[in-house]
Amino acid sequence: MKNKASIGVLYLIILAIIWGLTYPLTKIIAAYISPIIITWTRIGIAAIFFLLISRKYQYGKKEIINALLNIVAFMLFLNVGVSISSNPGLAAVMIYTQPIFVIIIEILLGVKVSIRYIIGIIIGFSGIALSITSASFDLGVLISLLGGISWAGGTVYFSRNLKSSNTLRLNAFMNAFAFPIVLAITPVYFYFKYSLYIIGLLVILGILAQAVGFYLWFNSVKILGSIRASAGSLIVPVFAYMMTFLILKIYPDILEIAGSAITLIGVFITLSRR
Question: Total domain count for the chain?
Answer without folding.
Answer: 1
